[in-house]
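We treat protein structure as text, and this decision shapes the records that our systems exchange. The tokens are whole numbers drawn from a learned vocabulary of local backbone shapes. Below, we set out a record of this kind in full and without editing:
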Amino acid sequence: MDPRYDTLFYDGQCPLCAREIRTLRKLQGGNLIFADIHEQSGTNTDLPSHEQLLRRLHLMAWTGEWVVGLPANVRAWSHTRFGFLFKPLLWPIIYPIASRVYERWADSRYERKYACAIGNRTAEKQA
């Protein structure tokens, strides 16, 4: 068996994310590990912060390199037979636009879903 496993960190409390992960689990070739952000130990200092993991999709490549945002999504889908459909999102002419769309969507999803947490952090900073 090939030891080259990528690990995809996802928000298991997000219905849209959970649906995509179910699809990826079914379609992937076996070298993609799935890690629910909410089940990760707070003591693992090798991981980005909980907030960073929730704000953008993170994938830890088998080399130890972190891939974040749209490139993480493309890399995750490259573990399926449909990966070729996502690769054009990284082309130089398409990437700047696709990346901005992804970032706006990710920011909006985070702010809607975690607005209470954001409000609590803002109140704590002001105190």
Observations:
- The CA atoms of residues 47 and 53 lie 8 Å apart.
